[in-house]
Amino acid sequence: MLNLGIGVGSGNNYRNKQTGGTSSVSPAVNLSYERGLLPIGPGVLGAGAFIGYQGASYNLSGGERWKYTDVLLAVRGAFHYPVLPEFDAYAGLGVGLRYSRAAYEGSTSAPGAGSGAKLAPGIFVGGRYYLLSNLGVFAELGYDQTYLKVGLTGKF
After folding, report:
1. Which residue of 18, 51, 55, 91 pairs with 125 in a disulfide if CB–CB is 3.0 to 4.6 A?
2. How many domains, the chain?
3. Computed from CA positions of residues 146, 49, 55, 99, in that sequence, does the dihedral angle turn out positive or negative?
4. Which domain of life is it from (predicted)?
5. Which candidate, 42, 27, 21, 1, places its Cα nearest to that of 137?
């Protein structure tokens, strides 16, 4: 299966400690692939990969701005339970590498600007509803890059 989605409700704190500005956070864009590996009872254990991107900015007075970037690359495993022929419920775990960057654009230097990577665990529950035999929609709740993801799913 291949999922293409958007996520909202970021776990990252993009807010700046200064006041007097405006912020904007883009929805996260994500792509995931999963393959069924092992039948277990009526369900299937699957494994796959996830990549997601999210950006944000915080505009200060005087034209100065903070820009944030978040990229997550992870492996995931999930147990799928076929509730109905067209509805697949699942739950799983993931672990990956999160690359974060904070950049400051302004006339002065800013402490806190920089980038780094860290280990990022995740947990999720979701469901896929197939509108056609190989095309459907999905929704996931969990904790990795965003708290809610929705989008299209394709079965190959």
Report:
1. 91
2. 1
3. positive
4. Bacteria
5. 1
